[in-house]
Amino acid sequence: MSREVNFDGLVGPTHNYAGLSVGNLASGRNRSAESNPRAAALEGLAKMKRLADAGVPQAVLPPQRRPDLATLRRLGFAGSPQQVLDQAWKTAPDLFAACCSASAMWAANAATVAPSIDTLDQRVHFTPANLLSHFHRSIEADHTANRLRAIVGDSPSFIVHDPLPPVAAFADEGAANHLRLGAPDQPGLQVFVYGRDHHLPSPTRTFPARQTLQACQAIARLNALDSDRVLFVQQLPDAIDAGAFHNDVVAVSNHQHLLVHEQAFVDQPAVLDAFRRRLPQQPLKIHEVKARDIPLETAVNTYLFNSQILSLPDGTTLLVMPVECEENPAVRQYVQQQLVDSGFVDRAMVVDVRQSMRNGGGPACLRLRIILKDAEQLALRGVRC
Fold first, then answer.
1. Distance between CA 297 and CA 241 in Å, rounded?
2. Residue 262 falls in the annotated catalytic set
3. What tens digit of pLDDT does each residue of 123-155 get?
């Protein structure tokens, strides 16, 4: 039996709003606002507990060590830990803020994962994201790789690759730009969403497109995927310029379900048709939200598409959405009438993750999804779901 396990990132004690993420509207809007790390951690744990109680296998990824003294020392700050922090705070507050960031809480950016049902060698593959688009996130990559290796141990069922080379051509933001369509116990379709081709001029006008086509292609090779079950799809530049800095701000999938905004992909009708054609034996339930019903601005402000779609043990489908969706009358009505009443999902659950949302991360940002067979789950160190 195979099932999806959610690995959620736990918020660390240095959680703050430093406005470090260019293109992330919430991050910029809440720059220098007062944060509450304790509340942030409790919100994340409450979400995990509610999903575990609903029957979703749940694991926790602990926060990375912050402040990152090793990185500050590499940047020339010397002395005792207190002296290093004092120097950085006084002379380079931007570097101090970056090395205190708790952004590893957003586990959707940790890696791109391929389940063994999809891989040519029948192993679970992890490619940790290099996250080089922003300095404060790039310092996570090696720690993430080490953490994943500690979790999988020496089991032959898993392989954790090194992050891609930290150069612009291979900018990788992890599973936030990746979809998998298909049942957990059947080979699925791996969809890699990129923002730009490194060999072409940037397609965006306002904000940088982070994920490259070249990174997606490299990950597909590393993760030993069957090329017949891989698609490379370009995110619509207008969506990135509207604040959808990752694909998971405009699209979310689970098994055969896909909830997608009308302005998510370049040449979207052809893309959705390709999804259906590539999985002829697994009928997809695709719900495309029209811009006239929920404009991109509303989608970005409420993070509707950063909800989680979950398949529960009783066979029902659950939409886990942030409280901001409930507080927006148009989105609340749309979810009830067009998603629940129509049967796209069986019910919706509202979770309060405001501390994360104020930095631009909804419920789906906080988790890394991994499809595991029962034996693979038992082989993990320190994970009992």
1. 10
2. no
3. 999 999 999 999 999 999 999 999 999 999 999
Give how far Cα 339 sits from Cα of 32, 298, 319, 346, Å. Answer: 37, 17, 9, 8
Whether the predicted model's global pTM rises above the 0.85 cut: yes
Is 173 part of the annotated catalytic residue set?
A: yes
160: which strand partners?
126
Please say if 246 is a catalytic residue: yes
Q: Per-residue pLDDT tens for 323-332?
A: 999 999 999 9
- Measure the CA–CA gap between 58 and 372, rounded to whole angstroms: 12
- Residue pair 143/104 in contact by the 8 Å Cβ criterion: yes
CA of residue 189 relative to chain centroid, distance? 18
The distance between the two most distant Cα atoms of the chain, rounded to a whole number of Å, is 62
Residue 1's pLDDT band, with cuts at 50, 70 and 90, is confident
| Element containing residue 232 per DSSP (H, E) | strand 230-234
Which DSSP letter does residue 349 get? Answer: E
Considering 246, 255, 257, 261, which one is annotated as catalytic? 246
Distance CA 270, CA 347 (A): 30
Helix axes 81-91, 93-100, angle to 10 degrees: 130
**Residue 136 corresponds to which tokens in the numbers above?**
């404060």
- Write down the catalytic residue from 99, 100, 325, 365: 365
Distance CA 111, CA 109 (A): 6
